[in-house]
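A sample follows:
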Amino acid sequence: MPSFSRRHVLAGTGAAAAAVAAPACAQPASSRALAGKTFLITGASSGFGRLGALLYARQGARVFATMRNLPRPEAAELQQIAEAEKLDIQILELDVLSDTQVAAAVAEAERRNGGPIDVLVNNAGIVIGGPVEVQDLEAARLAFDTNVYGYHRTARAVLPGMRQRRGGLIVNVSSQQGRIIMPGFGLYSATKFAVESMSEQLAYELAPHGIEVTIIQPGGFPTNVGANMNRYTGALRARADARHTAGYPEMVARMGGRQGGGGGGQPDPMDVPRAIAEIAALPAGQRPLRRPVHPGPKPQEAINRVSAETQLALLGATPYGPWARAVLS
């Protein structure tokens, strides 16, 4: 069977508008590797989102940094840095739980940009720990609404514009736990497994439109996610029913008190936005479907390989074969 690359499919749709640039991770912060690109980032108040907003703008991009509950100190601080460095960072209010806010923020970003967004970075997410039995429906709904439906909302909002232009990149921040299971993390893995599946399906369906999808798989990094996890998990523990907590005394004792982790190696939170910047700077058709990011062990890599082989075998002889080869080759 003939071999296809993603570049072949993109070229076949007339969407190979390649931006020739060296990998961003190999260039200094002053590089203009992302000049001419427009980013929209969710969850830009802290962590990977905030670091990414500054990095992409420093590399020449126009950045719409979105966060909920404006005005807030984090927004003011980011705006001050942008003004001091003359960076094109514009802050918009966007709560990924709100259909209305997602639609309004994307529409406003497209209006200010004078056209569709080039790169959507779905970054906003939460972790609520504890045994699955202890996770009540309030916790389960919040986890899925933020980590899965939030990504779905923003992707649906940007895709009509990207399809009209026949180009674009959606970056979905997943996790090592989108491929592996760690007991005691509640439904977090379930949400990230869903992100992995939804993202790969999107990648196949969008290949004919010249739009690419990349899944970022971070390991543990020292960001605000740990403090936020303890806040959400502590609230869950406080309202949990003893009928459910009684079976897991050791896990329940740790709920709300986990330390921010690194998961081995010396993790630098900048590694994630650097990887995203590198991928966004690649020519269309050369961007990977998945990118593990962590200096320590990456146990999901073996699963990624087996998954790609399985999908190619499953879809290769079907009408979707060219899409699968374009995404996975």
